[in-house]
């Protein structure tokens, strides 16, 4: 496949969340141990304190810092999900149950499979569209097609909509196309307006398809601290900077189990994996190479917690065990925090 270059704009250090100068002593040994994870670039942690919360720790590795932009890969699917929830909250979209065919009418095949009329926004976000996946071995062919939206819609059905997970970046790219059309604006500008009020959040680079639509669910760059700010906003029920950024009801919907992950068997909602760590529930976004955003909702005895980890985006993390190493580190950090 042709290489597509993601421009990582140098990011100025952005004030995040009233960060203390040093991390809690209990976290320091673990952060030092994490240096042994060769692909790892940075870790940042946040904990709710009843106000805006605070950054507990932020550490860079192997020449990178928490303020170095990194391609967060498929962790950006959680960002696309957030934008969808905001669009629904603003009345630009009806609900997750809204059929996508009328929204993408101009790009439908000449003789579409009747099942295409049954695919909903929620099916796209939960990876249950039923269309042949355009990730994995099919990804290169898809991104080299002249029109990614039309290519995705013309893919054959391998199962009925709403059944098992069929992980595909093409699904979240269709969501990006829908958001672009209902807002009438480039999605990067929309994301800047809708998510920009989150203190410390900034997208520093994002690839586009041949029609200029920003790629939904991949090739998005931001710093580890920016990814943490996004997770912290979710941990606070969608609030940040004194505003309700993402509707709390949408977060609840996004964290409902819709299907099972083809990678781990864990639950999957609308752009979020659902599991347990350190004896508590965790919701997380995961991108190729080991780009992670973890959100631990508050419990009766424990405050909400968020953490972000970024790694080399050009190395696999699933088959190498790096993703599992990050999970184990996240679990230990959560227990220590």
Automatic annotation (TrEMBL):
Residues 60-320 form the Beta-lactamase-related domain. Keywords: Hydrolase, Signal. Gene3D superfamilies: DD-peptidase/beta-lactamase superfamily. Residues 1-25 form the signal peptide. PANTHER family: BETA-LACTAMASE-RELATED, BETA-LACTAMASE-RELATED DOMAIN-CONTAINING PROTEIN. InterPro entries: Beta-lactam-related (IPR001466), Beta-lactam/transpept-like (IPR012338), Diverse_Enzym_Activities (IPR050789). It holds the Pfam family Beta-lactamase. One of its GO terms (molecular function) is hydrolase activity. This is Class C beta-lactamase-related serine hydrolase.
